[in-house]
Specification:
The relative contact order is 0.21. The protein has a 6-stranded parallel β-sheet with strand order 5-4-1-3-2-6, with helices on both faces. The protein starts with a strand and ends in a 5-residue tail after the last helix. The chain contains 13 helices and 6 strands. Helices cover 47% and strands 11% of the residues. It has a single domain, classed as Rossmann fold. With 268 residues, the chain is an alpha/beta fold.
């Protein structure tokens, strides 16, 4: 069994990448369960916002036990680093684990528009106070340090732009398969479109509920393969005029982002 951990910053095209990797035989995607628990604990109104009731069994201990019990050869976990407790990290990112960090620039993350709502990602997290953007990036940097010191395989850091083209995405998938010890196949590069999540995934009920008002995952769920795209240009002067607090948080987070991009082996 191989623990494969995808640590991400939001809006980094990570869900589309997992659509591809879930084609690997004997693999299981465990999707953002710690993350949505973290969000719901920081912002209890999340349940009302998404129109769902709280599940008393939705606890950190139960999520951890479910992860431990998963028998697949490739146990693929996708989480925000900030959602995983420091005392749990050594077990999840054990010495034989594969750790991939998907990171997008703070400006692109913050200004990303939600597909199903006229609102930016930053507005979503700042209004609910569910996540602190500088802390999200700092905890990723801390986790990279941990992996470098404690794991046999070095961390693989992927900028969001690496997944912005079909060609770049294929290179990423091949490198990840090599790290995992999984066989790459061209068949992995296409998948079935779903209105919601792939039914084979282990997904938090809050992930499903969040997709309705905001469309966090709708594009990746409905996709059938990687697409060619282009990174946006962010006009920070306009951001500062329209939302000074967003601009301030981006400025505060940028130095941490730069450390992440310089800290470990990058994908070219």
């Amino acid at each position: 069994m191989v623990n494969v951990n995808f640590w991400f910053t939001p809006r980094s095209r990570s869900t589309a990448l997992l659509r591809c990797l879930s084609n690997i035989p004997d693999s299981k995607i465990i999707f953002e369960k710690f993350t949505w628990l973290c969000v719901s604990e920081a912002a209890p109104e999340t349940f009302d916002l998404f129109g769902v009731g709280n599940d008393p069994t939705f606890t950190y201990e139960n999520i951890l036990e479910e992860w431990r019990a998963e028998p697949s050869k490739f146990k693929i976990l996708k989480e925000l680093n900030v959602a995983v407790k420091d005392e749990t990290l050594p077990e999840i990112a054990d010495k034989d684990s594969v750790n991939i960090f998907l990171v997008r620039s703070p400006a692109l993350t913050a200004t990303s528009n939600m597909p199903s709502a006229d609102i930016t990602y930053y507005d979503v997290i700042s209004e609910s106070e569910a996540l602190d953007m500088p802390m999200v990036y700092q905890k990723m940097l801390d986790a990279i340090e941990f992996v470098k010191k404690n794991c046999e395989k070095p961390p693989l850091i992927l900028p969001g732009k690496a997944l912005s083209t079909k060609e770049g995405s294929v290179k990423v998938v091949k490198q990840i398969c090599e790290l995992m010890g999984a066989e790459f196949s061209e068949d992995m590069l296409s998948w079935k479109s779903y209105e919601t999540f792939d039914p084979s995934w282990d997904v938090s009920f809050l992930s499903r509920a969040a997709d309705i008002p905001f469309g966090f995952f709708s594009r990746a769920n409905q996709s059938t393969g990687f697409e060619d795209g282009k990174e946006r240009e962010v006009d920070m002067k306009k951001v500062a005029e329209d939302n000074p607090q967003m601009a301030a948080d981006i400025e505060k987070t940028d130095p941490i982002y730069e450390q992440i991009m310089e800290h470990a082996e990058k994908f070219d």
